[in-house]
């Protein structure tokens, strides 16, 4: 009898496991099929196919003729991607040489590496962007170096705020001299790199003050306060791979990675570095090909044509904007991280695909993981404190998105983007707090099994996913286009709102599967006692620290 019961139990477990597997495959297939259908309708629609004729000035430059033999026109109207692409094409030999020499120097004379990083980066900036651009970065670093010596955190934050918002507040462009002397491309790269460097400089300033809190007032033999290392902080501020491409990395994390012993450059390490760069090259090629079919950037210049899109094509247009947004940063962060890896340096990981991030908190944590760590360390945690009360978390999240609002330009569209993102994470915080109540814990343990929990997560995650995507639309498009999407999609009940929510329900299941897979892989690596690669380290972090997850 016991043997029969055991056999029956095993059969039930096998049947349940097969059923779960089939259900997950169904969710993935439905999500991929629905995404492909909406994107396909947008690409093949009359508005998209006729766009080069409707807006010939968007496709008239010679560089936009395809080098890939594709008959369709090439949309390079997205300034951020166009200039970023041009920078990567021109700068990749500089980047690779920078890391190769840095790797060799790290083995031969490690003490000279900071000097080399600073000198090489400033040489590159001087030759490619101009001496005025190099001067901006040197002066920017000098200002924060002095602030670190003064040890006044509030003043440091104020100076950083003024550097980032000077144009929005006063309408004065510091970088006009670069535009006039070296053209628009150098101007664009200088401006973006300057803004990234503000975050890096504030990071070394705050990290130095934090480490020196207990002993900063102690004088040396001459009665002077200790200063941060000039060359280490300068090499960090202008470290070439992420100087323009990003991502930002906190100063202490940079030092920890830069100063750790370099492993031997084995064949396996060489293959890993080459594979990482080839992966980015494939993404680069894929992005170029997608720009021949997804004219979402050019279409932003013609809202009257967007109004002519049918409902499915309109949804596909929104998906295309988000997809190209992800690809752009996946390539830039992938290249900078891959090049830094040659030197043995680990930058924050590139973004995770937005089509598998149904939580607003997950999107903000992993789309730009470096920026997330920066905000967490210098804005969120100082406000939350050690007690981590819900009201302090809400305040910290509000201030964090206020900083995002300032850094991305204080426009009306960015205001809505930051506000809706705050709303999404605030909802997660409140629901997480409700779930911690004893009555909710008791009800969940008695009446909700794991399968039902996944279903509830997906049902709640579907509108939450829509909120996250819609919030990004304000940043990716403009007020007029996003208002049009709001009126036609979100207010479009039952069509297309209900089908969109059903599709996002499948997307929420896919997102949970991806999270579970990463957490499982990280747990196996940890159990085996091996050092976690960067990707799995983040998966482990997600599996053990999820304060903002709804369920």
Question: What would your notes on this structure say?
Answer:
The protein has 551 residues and is an all-alpha fold. Among the domains are: 79-213 and 224-259, no CATH class; 352-551, no CATH class. The protein has helices at residues 2-44, 46-49, 51-54, 79-108, 113-128, 131-150, 153-170, 176-211, 230-237, 240-245, 251-259, 267-290, 296-299, 303-306, 311-342, 360-366, 369-384, 390-407, 412-435, 438-447, 450-476, 479-490, 497-527, 534-544. α6 runs parallel beside α8 (176-211) and α15 packs across α21. It is built from 24 helices and no strands.
Helix tally equals 24
| Estimated radius of gyration | 25 Å
Question: In this structure, how is the largest beta sheet organized?
Answer: none
Strand elements, count:
0
| Category from helices, strands and their pairing | mainly alpha
User: What is the percentage of strand-forming residues?
Assistant: under 5%
Question: Which descriptor suits the 3D outline?
Answer: globular
Low-confidence stretches: 216-223, 531-551
Order of helices and strands: HHHHHHHHHHHHHHHHHHHHHHHH
Helix content: over 70%
End-to-end span in angstroms? 40 Å
Q: What's the pLDDT, averaged over the residues? A: 90
Membrane topology: Multi-pass membrane protein
Keywords: Membrane, Transmembrane, Transmembrane helix
Pfam family, one: MBOAT
Transmembrane segments: 25-43, 118-139, 146-167, 187-208, 307-326, 394-410, 416-434, 455-477, 489-508
